Amino acid sequence: MLNNREALEVIGKVRGEQIVITTMGSMGIWPDISDTPLDFAYLPSSMGQGISLGLGLALAQPSRGVIAVIGDGSLLMNLGSLVTVANHPAPLHVVLIDNGVYELTGGQLTPGSRRTEFAALARAAGIERAFHFDALPEWEKCAADALGGSDHSFIWLQVDRQNGPPPLPPKRPMTEQIARLHQELERRT
To answer: Is the pLDDT of residue 69 over 70?
Structure first.
């Protein structure tokens, strides 16, 4: 089975010039993989908003593409976001890191842990390009295709249940991240 770091390292290798939004548990790992102005660490006070932020950026930057990395607990708290994504074609690639637990609150099992078919949920919401990977070789082989294209996709990555370290505050304050991302998007358009 994959682990979170391996899953994210593959994204780092194939992301190109796409914006990458990391949330919750992935926030603590991503800065070791990438630290560009197109990286945005998003830790809101309510879980489940990473997809909405990613969709807004994908609609505003359709030639670039956005990868929103979320956790299974976050997705479960905002399943309706999949329907919204499906009805707004944009280059948003939702990457679900599914470790089966609420990592940041002590490792409690998420509802339906390891029984929920997240790719089927995405397809039922209208996202036709839905993928599922639980092994590194297959993820490495298919990642560029899954994270490419001018329309949305949903990638469900089942990772082991290791609780990572609690995420540290983002490397930069939110106002600095916003200014940095805005400046980079203005420069590259």
So the answer is: yes
